[in-house]
Specification:
Radius of gyration: 17 Å
Helix content: over 70%
Shape: globular
Number of helices: 11
Number of strands: 0
Largest sheet: none
Strand content: under 5%
Structural class: mainly alpha
Oligomer: single chain
Distance between the termini: 30 Å
């Protein structure tokens, strides 16, 4: 039922956007309505659900998210768990640019993730976003470029889309989101919610 409700909301946004939004946003609405909900959305549990919340929450539940991420880290201090805390810290910094401690924590946790698993994508995902926020746009893109330095999964394409969006490369952003959605093992709910939130920001802006 929740999935049907979300799909209806996405379709309504898509119809509304045809009248008022530029082409790039129309494509985003179409991607949200036609691709995201074309996947089978099983109920997310555990770390998967937490990762989705970290990426899509409005952060009023930051304390609870942080506590959950820290508990996971205590149970299994791996690269993925470091990535979750780093991503949460990065989102907090984006919402509170004066709080440099969040950026510092994100950078430190991403480096630890890279050291723990240099052949996996987790640490590089956050490190590239840190570079982007610091103004090193080309270096951020280069870090996630197509190369065999580390195993690239759906998250790499997703974060490339996030970077392209921050650099106002709408077309490239949508292509990366679509690629991420089609990659085996992806979290359609996370990607779909992120796109929906971006559309909502556009409406309110």
């Amino acid at each position: 039922m929740v999935r049907d409700a979300k799909k209806s909301q996405a379709m309504e946004k898509s119809r509304f956007s045809r009248q008022f939004l530029p082409k790039s946003i129309l494509i985003a609405a179409s991607l949200l309505a036609e691709l995201t909900f074309g996947f089978h959305l099983s109920a997310a549990t555990g770390s998967n659900e937490l990762e989705t919340q970290i990426w899509t929450s409005n952060l009023t539940d930051y304390v609870q998210l942080e506590q959950s991420a820290v508990r996971l880290l205590q149970v299994n201090p791996g690269a993925y768990e470091h990535y979750l805390i780093a991503e949460l810290s990065l989102r907090m910094f984006k919402n509170n640019p004066a709080e440099l401690r969040f950026l510092k924590q994100a950078s430190e946790m991403s480096q630890e993730a890279i050291e723990l698993a240099p052949n996996k994508e987790f640490g590089y995902l956050v490190a590239s976003q840190v570079l982007d926020l610091m103004g090193y746009k080309s270096e951020a893109v280069e870090m996630l470029s197509e190369r065999p330095t580390f195993a690239q999964g759906w998250r790499t394409s997703f974060v490339r889309g996030v970077l392209a969006s921050s650099q106002e490369a709408d077309q490239g952003s949508l292509q990366e989101f679509a690629k991420s959605l089609k990659t085996p093992g992806s979290f359609p709910e996370l990607i779909g919610d992120y796109i929906a939130n971006s559309l909502e920001t556009t409406y309110s802006g």
